[in-house]
Write a structure and sequence with these properties.
Distance between the termini: 31 Å
Helix content: 25-40%
Radius of gyration: 21 Å
Strand order of the largest sheet: 1-2-3-7-9-12
Shape: globular
Number of strands: 12
CATH class of the largest domain: Alpha Beta
Low-confidence stretches: 97-148, 151-155
Number of domains: 2
Length: about 350
């Protein structure tokens, strides 16, 4: 079944995921979160995806939680619609209509063949790109509140705390634990949990038009989507509290100055600049970069002795990789290495 609220494209080692609710500022709804979780699980298992770009369609990166849908759902209780199942697959199919720009199609026609094979059906060289099917998605048990008079009807949108536990938290963990570089191309506003999604990524490039907002207090909530963790780490406790309390916008220039993002891209060159970096990383030693990511994130909660021990363990694993052997060989032969990501 095709994705409805995200677009996915895979080319030359780069998996590009585009949030695709442009008329709603790409705000999150439950099905969109399910689709994101599914596509990241697929890319984690896909050896042909060596780096990931995450961006938004239209003028926004992500407006965070769709509070319009949530307000309607929590004020007027309606029956729950079960989530649709997805199965990651990089082969293109025609998108469901209507879909907004960008022009490429979402991918996901159904379960893939079980193995690589050559035309006569036996394993061989030059295999066609076939991917192992994902396990069937786990459907959480439905939220079923009751009262003294029996079961009550449910909103289409899960209560905010349930959605945080069921969708946001697993997605943030998945991006951080994924042993591949994830680059956020922040093309516009990143607000609330949409800001948290951007901050979960490893590298953040932003358009000069981008704006960063922690909007939760505007509706009487505290920050979620990882913002309570990310913001103090990146910009310091005092500034993080100011953003969370006041709900004010931060410009891309200020975000770069404070270290919230890696780079501001002027004009319309955001995707070109992001793609240039992604292309370079896609040709790099994926295994070494993945373990570097694990090392740096884990070291934040370790003391020096623990960090040095972890570094030694991960270094040993990297030294066993095929890419390391290729790197040494290329060094001796005075040529550029041809890393395979293994």
């Amino acid at each position: 079944m095709a994705y409805q609220y995200i677009l996915f494209d895979r080319k030359e080692g780069i998996g590009t995921v585009t949030l695709n609710r442009p008329t709603q500022l790409n705000a999150f709804i439950p099905q969109m979160l399910d689709e994101l979780t599914n596509v990241f699980k697929g890319m984690e298992r896909d050896p042909e995806v060596r780096v990931i770009i995450l961006t938004g369609a239209g003028k926004a990166f992500c407006g965070g939680e769709d509070f319009k849908s949530r307000a309607e759902a929590e004020v007027q209780l309606e029956p729950t619609t079960p989530p649709n199942p997805y199965s990651y697959n990089p082969n293109p199919v025609a998108p469901p209509s209507p879909l907004a720009s960008p022009s490429y199609s979402p991918l996901n026609p159904g379960p893939p063949p079980p193995m690589y094979s050559n035309p006569n059906g036996s394993p061989g060289s030059n295999p066609s790109p076939v991917y192992a099917p994902n396990p069937a998605p786990i459907t959480p048990e439905p939220y079923a509140p009751t009262s003294s008079t029996g079961p009550i009807s449910l909103p289409k949108t899960p209560p905010i705390t349930e959605q945080n536990l069921r969708s946001y938290n697993p997605l943030i963990r998945q991006i951080r634990r994924l042993e591949k570089p994830v680059i956020a191309a922040i093309n516009g506003v990143a607000a609330g949990t949409g800001l948290g999604l951007a901050l979960a990524c490893d590298i953040r490039y932003a358009s000069e038009k981008a704006r960063f907002i922690e909007v939760s207090t505007r509706v009487g909530l505290m920050p979620s989507g990882g913002n309570g963790y990310f913001l103090p780490q990146y910009i310091g406790l005092s500034k993080a509290l100011e953003l969370a309390f006041a709900g004010d916008e931060m410009s891309a220039t200020e975000a770069e100055r404070l270290g919230l993002i890696s780079k501001v891209v002027l004009g319309e060159g955001l995707m070109e600049e992001t793609h240039t970096l992604a292309t370079r990383l896609a040709k790099g030693p994926t295994r070494a970069m993945g373990l570097t990511k694990a090392m740096m994130y884990n070291s934040q909660s370790l003391n020096l002795e623990q960090a040095l021990e972890l570094e030694s363990q991960l270094l040993e694993e990297t030294a066993r990789s095929a890419d390391y052997k290729e790197g040494l060989k290329a060094f001796l032969e005075k040529r550029s290495p041809n890393f395979k990501g293994k």
